[in-house]
From TrEMBL:
The gene is KAFR0L00290. This is K Homology domain-containing protein. GO terms for cellular component: cytoplasm. Pfam families: KH_1. It comes from Kazachstania africana (strain ATCC 22294 / BCRC 22015 / CBS 2517 / CECT 1963 / NBRC 1671 / NRRL Y-8276) (Yeast). SUPFAM superfamilies: Eukaryotic type KH-domain (KH-domain type I).
Length: 692
């Protein structure tokens, strides 16, 4: 047996046993891929009388329990059993469920609606090896509840297709479905952004279903699934997404961090997948975790560098690798499993190495549990060595002046501290102790000196007054809270999303021991901003749906707003989404009324930025006409979308009361000769009169 073959990796798991009792009148559809009669081996393995009773009552169940379990715990619920424990199966995939609701009218005949889609759901279940159960729900949330059952990986893979098919069910076949092929998985974080998806749904009336990044093979070319009742809307959405895709793939930047400890990468993949997913969306950067390296991909070089630094700060730095040299490996291992069973950890050992155990966990987990683990086994410990990875930018921060911080730790706790560069991005800090007493002291002191950091956005117009003359105000806040505060501007950063993005441009940093002060320093800064806003002058411009969409969709308009902020030292507050049920305002804040008026006039006079509009009044029979789905779809397909596509800067909006159409335009002649004429002709042919 080779050394690699002799390695055993123990980690906690949580899985479910889903119970099916039969005869549930709420179930209107269900597949039967994974349901099976609970085996006697399962009952024996669980070792719980309560679980045995529940399993004996159920007809079938969905379950998968590792064969090598330790420290098993069982909790019986109404329709499922939660099983937790420790396993050495590195590829074990727990059984989970994912639920979503599809609203339907009260008088819906559920069986009839589902009939057309049962074959599709069957195919999804077979392709991804899952089961789907659909239950009817009445009352306020009338509709269908979809339950997806299977391994975590398979449920994640199936989610996109299941949601898209459920959307077809919701609209009773009156929906068109199409796909957008992405050339690279690294483009997905942009399309996963909830605000981008919200804009597509509200403006283009199109749903976009995105696959979950971590469920995909990193070499795969994923697809987006689009659904819409209006074919021309779907085509425009598809064109918009393909255009965004082409722009991003032409300027992709890559960077790989090599020599990252294998155990730490495995730990992050197992326990922090959801958080890393969210990090990718927020930082517009795809992150690929491989066996011993991490790859970052982004369309913007600045965001790539920032993402690497923040990923190191918020993920890698918090994960430690502890090597324990001991002559009682078995006893210590059992003690670790007992105390860490309810937290995230990997325990690595080898039958070929008698005196060494590796523990991968977060430093907060280790701090809270190390006394309980090592106090009992103190005499058997020969040496403790812990490794941290931090970003190279923080080398001086952690070392202190002339290595003063680290020297104090070494002198007060009989420690050895070694610094080494893992690569051109990371620095490894190794802390070595001979006894647990020294280790617990030095570990706490070293963790206290690690960098803690929070970043957020404050409009650049407030930076100078917050800093104060000669830095007087900001220096006072920093000294009071024992923190360092850094300001930067974000004027040059990209505005390529379907909303105005505000990038973090203020950083508050301090040693970990003072991280509680970050909150107070941030509150002081935001209070100063609030006070300055109160003293400022402002101008408000009412945004219509057309004006909002024009600023978002027409190339360069969002960046033009940012450049106006930079040129005139103002802050333009632009809503992230358009709300049809209330007033939408773009507000310009500044210190000088004349400057605010100049900015306001600049916006109003820029016809590409602030398009002109005209309202067309409609006869009262238009409301009844447009309430018919077929007429609404034709009006979009034959009037609204052809006009908006043909005439750049033109947008057509129906008001909420359906008594008026608002048309935006740039050219007067085109408005009269083309737009108004076409709308009037179409509606007149349907018995509706139009007037200006």
């Amino acid at each position: 047996m080779t050394l690699e073959e002799s390695i055993i990796v123990l980690s906690p798991f949580e899985t479910n046993i889903f119970l099916e009792y039969g005869g549930n009148p709420s179930i209107v559809f269900g597949t039967n891929n994974l349901w099976k009669k609970p085996s006697s081996q399962l009952v024996q393995q669980l070792g719980s009388t309560e679980a045995e009773e529940a399993l004996n009552k159920c007809a079938t169940a969905i379950y998968s329990i590792p064969s090598d379990t330790n420290n098993l715990s069982v909790s019986v619920k109404k329709n499922h059993i939660i099983v937790t424990g420790v396993t050495g199966s590195t590829d074990y995939d727990p059984i989970v469920t994912s639920t979503f609701h599809v609203p339907l009218p009260v008088d819906t005949e559920f069986d009839n609606i589902l009939n057309n889609y049962k074959d599709i759901f069957d195919e999804i279940c077979k392709e991804f090896n899952i089961d789907i159960v659909v239950m009817k729900q009445s009352g306020i949330k009338n509709g269908l509840l979809f339950y997806l059952y299977g391994t975590a990986t398979n449920v994640a893979k199936a989610q996109q297709q299941a949601l898209a098919t459920a959307d077809l069910v919701r609209h009773h076949d009156n929906v068109i479905l199409d796909y957008v092929d992405l050339d690279s998985i690294s483009l997905l974080p942009y399309f996963m952004d909830p605000s981008n998806l919200h804009f597509l749904k509200s403006h283009h009336k199109t749903n976009c279903f995105v696959p979950q990044v971590l469920s995909l093979n990193t070499e795969a070319n994923p697809q987006l699934i689009l659904t819409s009742k209006i074919y021309s809307n779907l085509l425009r959405t598809k064109y918009l997404l393909q255009e965004k895709c082409n722009l991003m793939k032409d300027s992709l930047y890559y960077k790989k961090i090599s020599n990252v400890p294998i155990g730490k990468i495995a730990f992050l993949k197992k326990f922090f997948g959801t958080q890393i997913n969210q990090f990718m969306i927020e930082n517009q950067t795809f992150i690929r975790l491989e066996k011993n390296f991490i790859e970052f991909q982004s369309s913007f070089l600045h965001l790539l560098d920032l993402s690497i630094k923040n990923f190191t700060l918020f993920f890698l730095q918090n994960v430690i690798e502890l090597t324990i040299f001991t002559d009682k490996k078995s006893d210590l291992q059992n003690n670790i499993l007992q105390n860490f069973r309810e937290s995230e950890f990997l325990l690595i050992h080898s039958s070929a190495i008698e005196d060494k155990i590796f523990l991968i966990t977060t430093y907060s987990n280790l701090l809270s549990r190390c006394k309980a683990v090592f106090d009992k086994e103190n005499e058997s410990i020969e040496q403790l060595k812990v490794n941290f990875e931090i970003h190279l930018d923080y080398e001086d921060f952690i070392s202190g002046k002339k290595n003063g911080k680290l020297t104090r730790i070494i002198e007060t706790s009989n420690s050895i501290i070694e610094l080494s560069n893992s690569n051109d991005t990371l620095m490894t800090i190794s802390l070595i102790n001979e006894t647990f007493e020294d280790f617990s002291i030095s570990l706490k002191k070293l963790i206290d000196e690690l960098p803690a950091e929070v970043s957020f956005f404050i409009a650049e117009v407030y930076h100078r007054p917050i800093i104060g003359t000669g830095g007087s105000i900001i220096q006072t806040i920093m000294r009071k809270n024992n923190v360092f505060i850094q300001f930067s501007n974000s004027y040059s950063l990209p505005q390529d999303k379907l909303y105005l993005e505000r990038y973090d441009n203020v950083i508050i940093r301090c040693p970990n021991k003072n991280k509680g002060n970050i909150k107070f320093a941030k509150e002081e800064l935001l209070k100063l901003v609030e006070n300055f806003q109160f003293l400022q002058n402002s101008s408000k411009l009412a945004l219509t749906s057309n004006k909002f969409n024009n600023i978002i969709l027409n190339n360069g308009n969002l960046m033009n707003l940012i450049q106006l902020e930079k040129k005139f030292n103002v802050f333009i507050k632009f809503p992230k989404t358009f709300h049809s049920d209330r007033e939408n305002i773009m507000q310009i804040n500044g210190n000088d009324n004349n400057v605010i008026n100049m900015v306001t006039n600049t916006i109003l006079q820029d016809e590409k930025l602030w398009i002109r509009e005209v309202s067309l009044k409609l006869s009262s029979n238009f409301k009844k006409f447009i309430e018919a789905d077929s007429n609404l779809i034709l009006f979009y397909n034959e009037v609204i979308n052809p006009l908006e596509t043909a005439f750049n800067g033109s947008f057509v909006t129906l008001d909420k009361l359906q008594s008026m159409i608002t048309v935006s335009y740039i050219d007067d002649e085109i408005l009269d000769e083309k737009i108004v004429k076409l709308i009037g002709s179409y509606l007149n042919n349907n018995g509706i009169t139009v007037s200006r």
